[in-house]
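# nightly structure sweep
# worker-07 picked up a monomer target from the shared queue
# config: single-sequence mode, recycle default, output format = structure tokens
# input follows
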Amino acid sequence: MGGRAPPGDYGDRFAFARYDRVMFLDAPRGFRDPALIVARNRLLTTAESTLPLEAWARNLEERRRPRMPDIVVPHFDPAEAGVKARALLLFEAPGPKTVPAWGGSGFISVDNNDPSAQNVWRTRNEVGLHEHVLAWNIVPWVLGRASVKPTATELAQGAVELRGLLEHLPDLRVIVLGGQKAQGGWDAHLDLVIGDRYRVLRTVHPAGQSFAQAGAKERFLTTLAKTTELVR
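# output follows
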């Protein structure tokens, strides 16, 4: 398997060959560099394990557009496992750094230039969770320019869509629920429907405010370490 790129090696060779579904770039907040976003967009057009998920996301977007004309559903990260994922990191809703029109990358990615992505990057790197992973949100569309918490209605609607996504992940073993909103949405709308099909782990949200609380960083690290064991 290919590894992460050496520092500065950001050409097309890296964009297409070096990822090989082994996580992210060589440092957090890699998408500060616009050239790396361009490279990831190129990869998106050829990453076979991500293309079915992209088709699902674009279909979701178009189905909801009549009622939500400004809907934005970010791209899945083609540097991750796609339909071959064994672990799903499920958070609350996409933040503004996922929207290109607002200076974001367009991706749900551990390489995004924001504190949450940085915390996930560092923790995954520390526990060795470099592959077999997909990151997503229980509400898959952007809620606004600020980091807005989803409402009960939005969680219910997002949970309906999530059931469709899970059908595209035949190798999935573990779902990590990051934050109270993801956990509440799962408990209210998915727990009884899904049953014991997956191992479900619960942890804090990786946002900076959550991570600043006593014991939060350690809890997140412990959960991802357990995830690493379960996907081997």
